[in-house]
Amino acid sequence: MSASTTPRVVRTVLGHAGGPDYAIRDKQLYRDFRTDTSFWQLMVFAACGVELSVTNSELLDTLMVCSYVPEPRVWPIKLARLMAAHGHMSTGFGAAAQVVDSNILGIRIPKLAASLLLDLDRALSTQSETPAATVMEAFFESTPRIPGFGVPARSQDERVAAYRLSLAERPNSFGKYLKLAEQAADFLKSSRGVESNIVVWIAATCLDIGCSVEDVDPLAMLLLVMPMLATAHEGAQQDSALMRELPADASRYVGRPPRESPRKRAAQGG
Amino acid sequence: MTDIGLPPKRPGIIESRNYPDFLQLHAVQLEPECCLHGYSLLNDLQPNYRRVECVLLAYLGELPTERQIEIFELAQSFVQLPLAVTADLHSSILAQVCGARAASIVMVATTSAAEDCERRLLGYGDALNLFAGGQFSKLEVEPAVAPEELSIATKFRQALDTAGSFSMTLPEVGCFALWLRAMAFIGVTSPIFLCAIWAEARLPTVLAEAAAAKIGSFKDYPINQPPIEFEAERQ
Fold this sequence. Notes:
The structure holds 2 protein chains of 2 kinds.
Chain A: E1 10-12, E2 16-17, E3 22-24, E4 27-28, H1 29-33, H2 39-48, H3 54-67, H4 75-83, H5 89-99, H6 108-126, H7 132-141, H8 158-169, H9 176-192, H10 198-208, H11 216-225, H12 227-238, H13 241-244, E5 251-253, H14 262-267
Antiparallel strand pairs in A: 2-3, 3-4
Chain B: E1 23-25, E2 28-29, E3 35-36, E4 39-40, H1 41-48, H2 51-60, H3 66-79, H4 87-97, H5 102-121, H6 127-132, H7 150-162, H8 175-186, H9 191-212, E5 228-230
Antiparallel strand pairs in B: 2-3, 3-4
């Protein structure tokens, strides 16, 4: 779009500083949310326009706890620590948030997993006469990459185990897509030995609380990036020289062997 | 809290796998002397090569030819100035107004410029290989030259043609498209390097503006540019 055809005004539904209160979508921030609104209720309303029930807000609390990874050596979390090693938490946290915008891990995958669940639901609905296992077999056979499934470096995703345990303890939390995720997870484990990872459970939860596929992104961001705050904070406080510079024996050069440039050779009379 | 029964330093899932004890470096050798792609910094590169030649060595893995250097410097000179108040320029000024740290302002400028390049790269796909192979014709994804960049794009194209390195006359495309053809001609097609080179061209001018802005000058900053209008959602 050229500059001449670019709209001259940017529209927002997110907010307006109206005086003593802020307009937010179709509500007033302090008037409508000040007294009994949870963090998740405000975040989901602001980002997605979805009004969460208390039950669903508590479900996101549970998901946050179960998807929390405190181990600072795990790859993107370690990046938060490395980038905070000069003493600034914001740099570590911001860099880690950028790096999880990745095709192989992080915030893009839950959206893909949400699309997968919608497609699977459609397939099951349109072939309701066919046994579910048969439909799923054909569905996953025609899906080259199954987002939300596969667990690297360990036999199962401990976050999934914890979340499923929590869900089992509060069965009324199971909405349509969490049930579908469970169905798909059990099928893929029994038929292919493939375990689900936390991503498909994040996707299913987002859909169950009323988010669209597009709205999965900000929630996935919160769920996957917030754990990096603590490690960025600790990394900045430690101000670690060891994080800023690896010991000499912790790297190995595997590139081109030593060589001389034409100009050096010429200068040497060669 | 219930004791989960694990001693605090019990080997976990990371200890149960074999990971290397060292980071592999492919371009930078640290010992016994500092080298880039095999060339000694102190005994070869520093005394014999200009900065631009070392930059291209880093990107290409080999020392550049005079023609590569000429095209690189020519292309960088034409894209070093934004032709409008682009997001890299605007966000860097705003970061300074907000009182951000120097490193944060540079990060904002670099990230925004690199994002600009990455976004512009969308749609080119395999075309970069065509450019690298000397096929420079206009692509369907490339829009007509915007009026505001017509004069500079014309001079950019003429300068590249005059440099005599291209096998055919370049098409009438915008500055980024010409810059991309120049980079591919040199041999740079990696998105990482392209984003870095684009950002490197833009950073000095963008940061010159950021540094000139007054920290905390909120009253002087045009908060309504561009206009952002609130429209309450209707239930």
